[in-house]
Amino acid sequence: MSQDEEHLRLLSIFHYIAGGLTAVFALFPLIHLAIGLFLLLAPEKFEMNQAAPRFVGWLFVIIPAVFIVCGLSLAVSMIVSGRFLAARRHYLFCLVTAAIECIVMPFGTILGVFSIVVLTRDSVKVMFPAKGRAATPAP
Prior knowledge:
Blueprint (H helix, E strand, L loop, with lengths): L2 H24 L3 H12 L12 H34 L3 H11 L5 H13 L2 H4 L14
Helix pairs in contact: 1-3, 1-5, 2-3, 3-4, 4-5
């Protein structure tokens, strides 16, 4: 097994791990989402002089929902990218996902940078098939 193949194999494994961790952390705002739903559906349960305005409830629903959807989308793309790296397919998808991973501190940044470094090598580019032709073996 060449060094490039070993690096792609390790990157694939690390993409699975980082994707799983990202999915777990993306679900943390569920607490805020539950609070927002509680504010919207049962405002009389709060022991305040006046009920919280409805827009506060909507803020506690919309913002966490956006974070959850974006986080889970990133997690899925990281896991799919790990699969594509193992299969040596969809080079551009893997490269773009590696660039986007850099926003997830600290593990995503490290994984994204290493992925970009490995994927930009000419010897690795050859391992991915071009559209419409079979994969050529690395020299």
